Amino acid sequence: MDPRRRNIVVIILVVVLVVAGIGTYFVLRTSPAVSSCGPSETGTICVDQAEIPDSLDPAVTFSTPGWAAVQQVYQGLVNYNGSSVTSFSGVLAANNGTVSYDPATGFESYTFELRSGITFSNGDPYNAYVQWYSLYRSLLLQQGPQFILEQNFYSTNFSTTNPLSYYSSNASVHAANTTLDADLNNWNFDTPTASEIAQMEIANQSFRVLNASAIALNLGYGYLDSNYTYLLASISAPNSYAVDPVWVDANGGVQIGQVNSYLASNTMGTGPYLLQNYNGVGGGGYTLTPNPHYWGATAAKAQPWNINLPAANTTVDVIFQDAIDITTNDLTTGAVQAASFAYIGPSTIASLEGDSSLAVQALPTIYGATSGSWWIFLNSSVAPFNNLSVREAITHAINYPQIIQQAFGGYAQQWVGPVPPAYPYNNNVTAQEPYYSYNLALAQQEIAASPCAANACAGDTVNYMYLNTGNDWVETAQFLEADLKTIGITINPVGVGLDQLYEEQGRDSNGQCVSATTANGGPFYMGQEFYTSDYISPDDWTQNDALSTGSANGCMAGFSNATVDSDTYAAASDANPADLTAYYTNMTNIMYGNYSEIWLVVPTSFAVYSANLQGFVQNPMASAEPFAIGFNTDWLK
């Protein structure tokens, strides 16, 4: 069982130009988008955006453009505190919650006191009952981001003696979900009855209403079956945001395991913006207008440091525009003030840096690491990669400086995994192990001690899968082909699209790894891999690229180590810094000497925007635009 779902998109901020970065939705069209903005614009902020949202439902969206849109309209209990990687501030909640030990479960409980006077943009009230509804609805829909909540929480059967958890029987889960679904569709969460309130107040459940203005989130019911160090980070994601039950009921309600088609393209939130005129096709887009009934102005005055709270300053027009030449022209002529690229390379960055009307800012490492950190996998269960000397030889035959300087124009850096640089408890600054080095003499020494000695493997061509998003990765594959030829390993680079890469991570209807078949030009026992983070926490990475059941291992690297598995789960539930340092260092050291995951590069992220754009705040969650938790603080001078 693999409880961890690979994030199915690359999270890239809208004004972030990620060298060799990607997005899920590539829009093909023949005519340019039409923008109402122009070079002399001083009011509306205009944005060219390469990708189209997968959904506008906060419980469903699992893509960069979707997260970027819904965070302008919907709000959760907490969110990142400005540019901080590790601190948070209350949004719908008055603070970051009070943590206590729950003797009923043996785990921690977070109690959140809610702000008063919060309403949705249509005037409907927000309260603890609505938040309870929203969280359970997110679990019941069973969509891509469900695992973010399901790590710690699960559906409820209102049992005081036998609460439901991730490990309950399928029959119990089905029965409980059916009952809960009916309740979500029929209760009045503005003014619930006494019996309904009593059920929401039952102690043994993931989300427990304490009163109309307080809710407890009780850990231990999800697949981690433990406490969780990074809860505030995880509930900053959109699938914990509040939705209006009355509005949902009026537009299709809740159905187990099914999306609501109305909410996929319509919004109603508590946030500072209204999202209007949505047209989810190439050349379309949407408009964000300030919410005239926004509740947060008073709260913002009381907490001027909390950038999640201010009302919106100005209107924003987002245009779905995927042609890089049109977008760069729009930026340089002032037709737009910010842009999102599906791909951008060093030459484009260099050209934009020469324009005095634009700010082109290389961002701290955390942004590139969050958007995507990349490695090469070698399937250690398949010859010749089942030989340690072969894997080590390949690791040292790769000319890392050449890849960084020539393929990425210097806009990338090496890293040591499984936790990428700038994340808490990563091993890149004080690593006991150095970066993997280009050492041809050592590579030839190792290959001579392997079954591939004396060019014995040169005649066996290995298909090498790489993500073909632009020249950076094409050139990287070409460099790898030449590098490995020097040690008698022959690879055949095969470029694939993002959907194909995800397909390769899974299994077919017969339970066979797709990567072991001829699908998409395979089999692929060697290839390019990456992960992009849903939120800033080291375990969000290790549950993918270190855990034996993670999507980067099962059908790809095949790495499996009982100690690493144990440390992965132990670290997720431990808040002691000394313990965490030991866990992540141990994981790094074990994986380092296995060479089944060859950590390659973290591309540099850039913010590119008009010099007239003011007030944006960099956000390490990599889930909003433009490098801000919301547009609400932005304005044009």
User: Any idea what the radius of gyration is?
Assistant: 25 Å
CATH topology of the largest domain: Dipeptide-binding Protein, domain 3
Give the tally of structural domains.
3
Principal-axis shape equals globular
Describe this structure in words.
The chain has 3 domains: 1-57 and 271-363 and 605-637, D-Maltodextrin-Binding Protein, domain 2, CATH 3.40.190.10; 75-264, Dipeptide-binding Protein, domain 1, CATH 3.90.76.10; 371-603, Dipeptide-binding Protein, Domain 3 (Dipeptide-binding Protein, domain 3). The strands form 6 sheets. A 6-stranded mixed β-sheet has the order 15-19-14-18-16-17. The protein is globular and about 80 Å long. The protein starts with 15 loop residues before the first strand and ends with a strand. It has 637 residues and is of the alpha+beta class. A hairpin with a 2-residue loop joins β7 (207-211) and β8 (214-218).
Summary, kept brief:
The chain has 637 residues and is α+β, with helices and mostly antiparallel strands. The chain has 3 domains: 1-57 and 271-363 and 605-637, 3-Layer(aba) Sandwich (D-Maltodextrin-Binding Protein, domain 2), CATH 3.40.190; 75-264, Dipeptide-binding Protein, domain 1; 371-603, Dipeptide-binding Protein, domain 3.
Features:
637 residues, alpha+beta, D-Maltodextrin-Binding Protein, domain 2, Dipeptide-binding Protein, domain 1, Dipeptide-binding Protein, domain 3, 6-stranded mixed sheet, 5-stranded mixed sheet, 20 helices, 29% helix, globular
